[in-house]
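lol forgot to send this yesterday, sorry. struct tokens for the thing we talked abt
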């Protein structure tokens, strides 16, 4: 019997369970393969005792429409930065990657499928360089991974954000207010921009275009005076005014790997007031709502395609590569290409032209 280990890493994302199910269903067609899952990314392997879950057809039945991941995940620590307390009681990190690879060999694991975002693909590349037979599956609501046209979970996040805009329109119009919706996306404005277009927002502020607060005020005033008496702003969590950094919050969770973006909407309201805006303003921070719950059909399909492809790559020995969607094909690219540069909104794209074409202001 051959064994493939599946791990889900980084923030959870709608469609993770559909990938797991597809891997298991495809593997079950090949009699000699067994699929196991590591609990909480690679923590399940690094913990003593080991925490794994046998993934068979019964375990994965009906999970394709469930949000989250049945094998749990984490965006803290990992095999190269395992949190340990030193003799002075301070937290530091240890490289346990070699130990983990040896343990996987001892467990009879022939291949690993790591489903994750950019950070996870980087970890996969380093494990591959150390000799592990590993394949990546791109996952993130942020859609910030290059070398793939899209990631699963992203369209679900856009859908949820759009529904939030729809709801804010009715309350904004009733109260003649400026309503700001803060959405996720880290350093990429994909969720914000798509929700702004789909929801008919007047202003969209994204990390790729630092905003001029006076231009934002101008657009709001114009909208109130000449058009209708309310304004919807979709604000990416990583957006910033010209000359400023993104708004971050201190995070004392041990081993947390990323800067914690937070507070963009609160800051924008203050900037607008300071710039003289007189209208009533309210904010809504969508937060993890855009990451939870059922994946839309598009993401279930993409996730299923990714899962099937990942297992076929295991059989073909295509290690050191990440599954990639290049319309209309599901293909693969080396990790090195997948992690080379982030995928951000480009200013000369057709999508940007369409957004500007319907009058959306980016504060520039
Ligand atoms: O990368 C996915 C993401 O949801 C980002 O959009 C967001 O900044 C971050 O994760 C939030 O992470 P956490 O779940 O640790 O709060």
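and heres what i got for the seq, position by position
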């Amino acid at each position: 019997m051959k064994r493939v280990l599946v791990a889900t890493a980084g923030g959870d994302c709608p469609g993770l369970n559909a990938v797991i199910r597809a891997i298991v269903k495809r593997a079950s067609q090949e009699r000699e393969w067994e699929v196991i899952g590591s609990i909480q990314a690679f923590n399940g392997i690094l913990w003593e005792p080991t925490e794994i879950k046998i993934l068979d057809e019964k375990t994965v039945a009906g999970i394709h429409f469930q949000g989250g991941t049945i094998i749990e995940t984490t965006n803290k620590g990992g095999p190269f930065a395992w949190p340990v307390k030193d003799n002075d009681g301070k937290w530091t990190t240890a490289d346990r990657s070699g130990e983990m690879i040896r343990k996987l060999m001892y467990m009879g694991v022939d291949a690993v499928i790591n489903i994750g975002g950019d950070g996870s693909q980087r970890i996969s590349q380093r494990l591959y360089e150390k000799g592990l037979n590993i394949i990546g599956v791109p996952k993130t609501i942020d859609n910030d991974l290059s070398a793939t046209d899209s990631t699963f979970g992203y369209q679900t996040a856009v859908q949820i954000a759009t529904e939030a805009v729809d709801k804010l329109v009715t309350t904004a119009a009733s109260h003649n207010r400026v309503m700001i919706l803060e959405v996720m996306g880290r350093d990429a404005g994909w969720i914000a921009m798509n929700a702004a277009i789909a929801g008919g927002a007047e202003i969209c502020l994204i990390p790729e275009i630092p905003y001029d607060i006076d231009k934002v005020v101008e657009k709001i005033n114009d909208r109130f005076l000449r058009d209708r008496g309310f304004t919807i702003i979709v604000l990416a969590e990583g957006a910033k005014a010209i000359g400023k950094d993104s708004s971050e919050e201190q995070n004392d969770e041990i081993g947390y790997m990323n800067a914690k973006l937070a507070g963009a909407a609160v800051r924008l309201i203050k900037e607008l007031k300071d710039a003289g805006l007189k209208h009533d303003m309210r904010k809504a921070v969508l937060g993890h709502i855009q990451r939870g719950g059922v994946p839309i059909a598009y993401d279930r399909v993409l996730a299923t395609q990714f899962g099937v492809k990942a297992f076929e790559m295991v059989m073909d020995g295509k290690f050191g590569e990440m599954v990639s969607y290049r319309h209309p094909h599901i293909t693969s690219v080396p990790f090195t290409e997948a992690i080379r540069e982030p995928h951000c909104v480009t200013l000369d794209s057709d999508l940007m032209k369409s957004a500007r074409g319907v009058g959306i202001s980016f504060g520039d």
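Residues 156-291 form a domain with the Rossmann fold fold (CATH 3.40.50.460). anyway ping me if u want another try
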